[in-house]
Design brief:
197 residues, mainly alpha, Tetracycline Repressor, domain 2, 10 helices, elongated
Length: 197
C-alpha cells in the first residue's frame, strides 16, 4: 500500500503541483481514508521527500538504460534530453521550481543528491566524447561538467513553466556541445539538432 500511495501522490504532485495537492486529495483519488495515508507518512513533507527520491531513482535508471545502448556521446545527451521532455511533457509548472519555492529543505536535499550523480554522468559523457573524437582533447573535464550542471539547474530552479525550461535546456545542450566539439562533433551536433528540434 505504501508504494501505491507514493506512486499516486507523486503523479498528482507532478501534474497538479506540490503545494496544491493535499492529503485529502490523495485519499479521495485513491478511495482510501486519510488515516491510511498517515499510517505510512506522518505528514505531507515526508511523502514529498520519499516521492522525490523515487523520481530520482526512476530518472537515473532510465539514464543508465540510455547509456547502456552505446550511443555516441552527443547522441546520448540528446536521448537523455528527449527522455526528460517526454517524462515531464504533461506538467505545467516545473517540479524543481515548485520544490525550491514551497519546500526548500527537500529541494536542498534533492539537489545535493543530484549534484553527485550528475557530475559523474556528465564527466563520463565528456570522457566518452573525447575518446570518440567528438569533443576536444584539451578540455578540463571537471570544469565543463560543472558548467553544464550549473546551467541546467539554474534553469530548473528559476523557470516556472516546464515547457519554457525544456526549451532553454535544449539551447543549453547545444551551447555546451558547441563549446566542446571538434569538427566531427559539430557535424554530429547538427545531425542531432535536425532530429530533435
Amino acid at each position: 500500500m505504501k508504494e501505491k500511495i507514493i506512486k499516486k501522490a507523486t503523479d498528482m504532485f507532478l501534474k497538479l503541483g506540490f503545494k496544491s495537492v493535499t492529503m485529502d486529495d490523495i485519499a479521495c483519488e485513491m478511495c482510501i481514508s486519510k488515516k491510511t495515508i498517515y499510517k505510512y507518512f506522518h505528514n505531507k513533507e515526508v511523502l514529498i521527500e520519499e516521492g522525490t527520491e523515487i523520481i530520482h531513482q526512476k530518472i537515473h535508471t532510465i539514464i543508465d538504460e540510455i547509456v547502456a545502448k552505446n550511443y555516441n556521446a552527443i547522441e546520448e545527451n540528446f536521448e537523455i534530453r528527449k527522455m526528460f521532455k517526454e517524462m515531464f511533457q504533461t506538467i505545467n509548472d516545473s517540479p524543481v521550481y515548485q520544490l525550491k519555492k514551497h519546500y526548500p529543505e527537500i529541494h536542498s536535499k534533492m539537489i545535493a543528491n543530484e549534484l553527485e550523480d550528475c557530475n559523474t554522468m556528465f564527466k563520463q559523457n565528456i570522457i566518452k566524447g573525447i575518446e570518440q573524437d567528438l569533443y576536444r582533447k584539451d578540455l578540463d573535464v571537471e570544469i565543463y561538467a560543472k558548467f553544464y550542471y550549473m546551467l541546467v539547474f539554474a534553469i530548473k530552479e528559476t523557470t516556472q513553466l516546464e515547457s519554457e525550461s525544456v526549451k532553454l535546456e535544449t539551447h543549453v545542450l547545444e551551447y555546451h556541445t558547441r563549446a566542446m566539439a571538434t569538427e566531427k562533433g559539430i557535424l554530429e551536433l547538427e545531425k542531432q539538432l535536425s532530429i530533435h528540434t
